[in-house]
Amino acid sequence: MIRTILTLGVLAIGITSVMAQNDPIATRKETMKQVGRANAEVTKISKGEAPFKLETVQAALKTMQDASKAMPDLFPDTTKTGGDTAALPKVWETRADFNGRWEKFGKDAATASAKIVDEATFKAAYGEVTGNCGGCHEGYRLKK
Question: pTM to 2 decimals?
Fold first, then answer.
């Protein structure tokens, strides 16, 4: 099962990379949906709504790491408008901070991945990863 999840995740990111060349706005939206789906599964575990499965957690963290590497390149200057983008101008005005947030997100996901071996370590480490989300969603994304 874990191989299937990881394979699908790798394929999705690979397909996303190809799509990015044609439509970076659509690609970044799809990439964020992948992260959202991965996080939703793990959130169920954190709330006790699903049993702890290390494979599920590790697959979600891998999706987050892959997204963190891809996302900075999905905001070229040509995508400041159009495509129903929710990205605020601040993305391009403070590019170093924006890209740094993605880098931190990826590093935190990698660190958590290395630390998490059971439910106890999951509960201790996963919040650091998702704590990154608000910084971008609040400062760089238009609220609809």
Answer: 0.82
The DSSP symbol for 8 reads H
How far is 100 from 140, CA to CA, in rounded Å? 13
Q: Which domains does the chain have, with CATH numbers?
A: 2-139 (1.20.120.10)
- Do the beta carbons of residue 19 and residue 27 sit within 8 Å? yes
Query: How many angstroms separate the CA atoms of 14 and 142, rounded?
Result: 27
Rounded distance between C-alpha atoms, residue 121 and residue 89, angstroms:
38
- pLDDT per residue of the chain (144 residues) written in tens, 0 to 9: 666 666 666 666 665 545 445 899 999 999 999 999 999 999 999 999 999 999 999 999 999 999 999 999 999 999 999 889 999 999 999 999 999 999 999 999 999 999 999 999 999 999 999 998 988 899 999 987
Give the count of beta carbons closer than 10 Å to the beta carbon of residue 83. 14
CA distance 108 to 82: 32
| Paired tokens of 136 | 């971008």
